[in-house]
Structure formats: C-alpha cells, structure tokens
Amino acid sequence: MSAPVVAPVSPPPQPARRPLPPVLRFDNVTLGYDRHPAVHHLHLQIAPGALTAIVGPNGAGKSTLLKAAAGLIRPLDGVIQRGVPARRIAYLPQAAALDNSFPLTVYDLVAMGLWERCGLFGRIGRRHAPRIAEALRAVGLTGLESRPIGALSGGQLQRALFARLLLQDAALILLDEPFNALDAATVADLTALIHRWRDEGRTVLAALHDLELVRASFPQTLLLARELIAHGPTDVALTEANLARARRMNEAPDPHAAPCVRAA
User: Fold this and answer.
1) Which CATH superfamily groups domain 22-84+172-182+202-251?
2) What region holds the ABC transporter domain (predicted)?
C-alpha cells in the first residue's frame, strides 16, 4: 500500500516590514540669518543609511543646510525632525572654519572623538589607546601621533579629523566640503572611508563641488539653489536641465528680501 501524499505546508505569510523613519525630516523649513532667508520652504526626508551629496552653486545654502541638520542654527520657519539623538550626530565644518594653531598633537585631536563617551571632563587613558591607534591606522597617520596639528599638511589634517569622526561612532555624519584643496590620494582614501560608513548603515551627507566625484561615488544627490531643485538618484538629480535651473535660481539673490514665513 502506497504512502499517502502529504501536501507541503506553506509557511505563514510574514508581515510587511514597516519602512524605517527618516533620519532627517525638513517640514517647510526656511533657513537664514538675521531673518533673511538663505534656503526657502524646504521639504525633505533623508532615509537611514543614505549616502547623499549636497551640491549647488556658491551661496546656494549648502553649509546652512548642514548647520541646521546638526542643530547649530534654528530654522526661521518650519520644523526639523531628527531620528537620532544629538550625541549620535557628527559634524565636520569646512577647513577654513578650523583653527590649527591650537597646541594639540594629532593624538589629542583624534582622541576628542571619545569625549561623548567619556564626558567633557572624563579621562581618556590607556584603555582607549588601541581604539585611537586603530583610527589613526585607518586614515594612514600611524607614526604621526606626537606631531602638532599646526605642522600637518592640509591632507594630513583632514585625515586626522576623519579619524576623530571614526571614534565618535555617529549614526548621522555631516561633512561640509571635506575634500577642498586635497590631493587625489587623500580624496580617494577618505571617500573609501565614507563608503565604509555607508556599508555600516550610517547616514552621510556631504556638501561637494566636484560633480564628477559625486557621480562616481554618491548614489543620492540633493541639488540646492536657495530652494530644493532636485533630490534622488544622482543620475536623475544632476541633469543638465536641473543644473541650469540651479544656476538661474542662484544668480541674483536679493540681500534685502523680506523674511519668509509659513503661508497661513
């Protein structure tokens, strides 16, 4: 007598995964200084793990947007929602905003990335040395631990600042023109580090001028010209039509423009 045929049991249907909330959300946000707007009525969401370039003409509001994302300036209007706590946001300003005359060694500068874990008055001691050494190795600065930061080249200083970012262990990393005036080897090494952060699930936003680098290394682009021109896959955002529109929008800003307010 043949064995009865047993129908295979289908696994129960799995519930659909809910999309993760955005790391950053700008709801009709206007940004500026002294009540004069630099970025108008911005609606924007940045998904977790996104690797996004912010591009646009000079004066388009890129640095202003990053400062607002970091919580350094408040919007003139609208609401910014952050999906990560402030302690897990890392912000690297432009090199021109950094004072490398302060008497610090490379080791001390990099170790500052541990302040959030140790507290401002916490002691960074021997137990942290392996992590600091690993961060220095990752950016190619092994052997320069005792060098004063004022004696570093521009590329070496930027490598040290990236090592500090490594130790911050941030979920959201904001970079303002991180590659200005750097040699090609340094740009390649630091871009590889940014890709490592992306692979670890971190969210990275970087203001950049080099469109070829953006096309080659950043899958998402936000094109800004005092308002949002385009946001999405880089090849879709950086069309000639969008770039031309960004140039037109940025050509004649009015320094005496009235403050922007939310429409009633």
Assistant:
1) P-loop containing nucleotide triphosphate hydrolases (3.40.50.300)
2) 24-251
Binned average pLDDT, 10 residues per bin, the chain of 264 residues: 57 66 95 84 96 95 96 95 95 80 89 72 70 95 94 94 94 96 95 97 97 98 96 97 92 57 48
For the packed helices 154-168 and 129-138, what is the interaxial angle rounded to 10 degrees? 130
**Contacts of residue 170, Cβ cutoff 8 Å, sequence gap at least 6:** 88, 89, 90, 202
pTM above 0.70, yes or no: yes
Number of H helices, E strands in the chain: 9, 9
Total Cβ atoms within 10 A of residue 24: 24
How far apart are the C-alpha atoms of 210 and 142, rounded to whole Å?
29
